[in-house]
């Protein structure tokens, strides 16, 4: 098993510790890998605006495949490099169907230019840019592409919600679960972390066999299975642990750094 040409890592629950920080050890390991000529890419469910707080960790050429693959974002340059969006008519039909079938559901739309959230959608993460979001019904969405639809129904058990949303959406979108309770994330058809990373690599002549990918949740699993080596942190979802090529220490024990240090 040779060293990779590219390292891809999830953020929350993988590189980022439970307290929301990236350790000095993990930051140093990423920097060392980059200095050794190995490309690094963050692949995350976060939208572009939630990546600025990890800019220092990503280095001067920080690139993120974010929104579960819907966006490619130059974090340092604050530039959206690529985006994938729903067909607007299909998106509105999905929202209508969710409202009819999911008790108490409220929705939000992630776009490259920022969030569009329904008035009752809560700010559960203390988003510093929440005041910049457009708070209006999704029926009034403008023409900006929507890369990810959020359906929040905290009164419905998470497993039940995910099953229900997957049935409602069908082939009109891809359901992703990144660990947030009572929340279903839906991307346009064909948009996943794995697909976004694969496209990025293909454009740079990097083969899947030359990629090591790290993750913890079911939305990471296709990416880990696509990569030459898929690594799960010890705190990962049981399904991810079962299918990963390697298991490293947990996010709180700097598992990604442990593996990266072994490559150098």
The fold-level CATH name of the largest domain is Rossmann fold
CATH architecture grouping of the largest domain: 3-Layer(aba) Sandwich
Largest sheet: 8 strands, mixed
Low-confidence stretches: none
CATH top level of the largest domain?
Answer: Alpha Beta
Strand content: 15-25%
SS-based class: alpha/beta
Rg calculated over all Cα atoms: 18 Å
Q: Major sheet: order of its strands?
A: 5-4-3-2-1-12-13-14
How many β strands by DSSP?
14
What overall form do the CA principal axes indicate?
Answer: globular
Oligomer: single chain
The CATH H-level homologous superfamily of the largest domain: HAD superfamily/HAD-like
Element string (H = helix, E = strand): EHEHEEEHEEEEHEEHEHEHEH
Helical run tally? 8
The portion of residues assigned to helices is: 25-40%
- The number of distinct structural domains comes to 2
Written account of the structure:
There is one protein chain. By secondary structure, this protein is an alpha/beta fold. The chain has 2 domains: 6-83 and 192-263, HAD superfamily/HAD-like (Rossmann fold, 3-Layer(aba) Sandwich); 88-187, 2-Layer Sandwich (Hypothetical Protein, Haloacid Dehalogenase-like Hydrolase, Chain: A, domain 2). Helices cover 28% and strands 23% of the residues. The chain contains 8 helices and 14 strands. Strand 13, helix 7 (238-243) and strand 14 (246-248) form a beta-alpha-beta unit. Helix 1 runs parallel beside helix 8 (255-263). It is globular and about 55 Å long.
């Amino acid at each position: 098993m040779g060293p990779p040409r590219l390292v891809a890592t999830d953020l929350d629950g993988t590189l980022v510790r439970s307290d929301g920080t990236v350790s000095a050890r993990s930051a140093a390991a990423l920097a060392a890998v980059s200095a050794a000529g190995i490309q690094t890419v963050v692949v995350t469910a976060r939208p572009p605006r939630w990546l600025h707080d990890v800019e220092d960790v990503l280095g001067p050429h920080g690139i993120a495949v974010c929104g579960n693959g819907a966006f490619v974002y130059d974090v340092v340059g604050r530039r959206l490099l690529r985006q994938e969006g729903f067909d607007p008519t299909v998106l509105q039909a999905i929202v209508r169907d969710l409202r009819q079938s999911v008790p108490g559901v409220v929705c939000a739309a992630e776009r490259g230019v920022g969030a569009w959230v329904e008035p009752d959608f809560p700010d559960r993460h203390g988003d510093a840019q929440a005041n910049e979001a457009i708070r209006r019904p999704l029926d009034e969405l403008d023409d900006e592409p929507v890369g990810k639809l959020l359906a929040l129904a905290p009164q419905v058990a998470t497993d039940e919600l995910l099953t229900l949303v997957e049935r409602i959406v069908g082939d009109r979108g891809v359901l992703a679960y990144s660990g947030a309770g009572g929340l279903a994330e839906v991307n346009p058809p064909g948009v996943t972390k794995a697909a976004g990373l694969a496209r990025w690599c293909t454009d740079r002549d990097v083969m899947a066999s030359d990629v090591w990918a790290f993750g913890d949740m079911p939305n990471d699993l296709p990416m880990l299975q696509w990569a030459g080596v898929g690594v799960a942190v010890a705190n990962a979802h049981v399904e991810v642990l079962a299918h990963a090529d390697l298991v490293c220490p947990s996010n709180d024990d700097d598992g990604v750094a442990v593996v990266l240090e072994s490559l150098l």
